[in-house]
Amino acid sequence: MSYQINVAASDISFDCNDGETVLDAAERAGFALPYSCRKGVCAECQGGVVNADGVTEKALLCCVRPAANMTIAPRKIEKRERIVRKKLDASVFRITQAAPDVTVLQLRLPIGVRAKFRAGQYLQVHLDEETVRNYSMANPPHQSDSVHLHVRHVPGGRFSDGVLKELAVGRKLRVELPYGEFFFRDESEKPVILVATGTGFAPVKSIVEDAIKRKLARPLKLYWGARRRQDLYLAELARKWHDEGHVEFTPVLSDPDDDWTGRTGLVHRAVLADHPSLAEHQVYACGNPAMTSAARDEFTRAGLPEDEFFCDAFVQTDALEPAA
């Protein structure tokens, strides 16, 4: 059995199978809706569902499974090539401790296999038939024979505090990719502001290194927020980009060390201090959902068009089960 999904104020419609989510059905039909975690936590996919009385109610479209024909009013919907994802058995190639609570995990794909993804997207690590963990790919798309993941340690996390401790070079992990609407939009010529907190730096790294590889001329400004200096675990790389003229880098600490002379406070407020108007910019924000939510609200009030804000909120899976 299937149901028809109509999109309000448009001529778009698509079928949704019984038990299928609206988000999955839209992707299958070649349409892209905003989303991030796909678990009903981050609210990036929040849109409207029109009820029988014609009233539009808010709903998380990654969770809605229709039981009848329905009309939705998503924040945005775009025609897109049908997504082709791959499930692969990747081998652990290198494990590096980037900070006390951040591990860089490099996985090699099977010989002769390449993973097609866009800079900024993420993959899923399959722990079993039903349990997955989402991690952004920190390497740029041209490095398609491997993937680099920045894993933040979460006490009690099934992957970060469990599986990761037992990993050794050569161990295989089942991964599926690509996922995510957080990727660099080539069609714009606007200057770009990149905002990250914590390991939200991972997809930003992919975006910057992709832009460097492709010699893109658009101005890039990176604001990386953390609590302490040690949390900026690849700050030297970001400074190298800055010194070479690829990106303007501004680190921001909310609980600075005594000898810190740089910017302090909330990272999105540092952006606003430097850019009272964001009307002519495009913003990519990734990391703590409190930051991405505040950035969306305050940046749009500062003139940023809603459709020029792209975000990936890193949610702790322990909202539903032990986090990774």
TrEMBL record:
**Gene3D superfamilies in the record:** 3.10.20.30, Nucleotide-binding domain of ferredoxin-NADP reductase (FNR) module, Translation factors
For this protein, what is any one GO molecular function term? oxidoreductase activity
- Reading the lineage from the top rank, the first entry is Bacteria
Family matches, as CDD domains: fer2, flavin_oxioreductase
Per UniProt, the keywords (alphabetical) are:
2Fe-2S, Iron, Iron-sulfur, Metal-binding
Q: Does the keyword Transferase apply?
A: no
SUPFAM superfamilies xref list: 2Fe-2S ferredoxin-like (SSF54292), Ferredoxin reductase-like, C-terminal NADP-linked domain (SSF52343), Riboflavin synthase domain-like (SSF63380)
| Segments forming domain 2Fe-2S ferredoxin-type | 3-83
Q: What are the names of the required cofactors?
A: [2Fe-2S] cluster; FAD
Q: Does the keyword Metal-binding apply?
A: yes
Pfam families the UniProt entry points to:
FAD_binding_6 (PF00970), Fer2 (PF00111), NAD_binding_1 (PF00175)
Indicate the segments forming the FAD-binding FR-type domain, all copies: 85-185
Query: This chain belongs to which protein, by name?
Result: CDP-6-deoxy-delta-3,4-glucoseen reductase
Species annotation = Caballeronia ptereochthonis
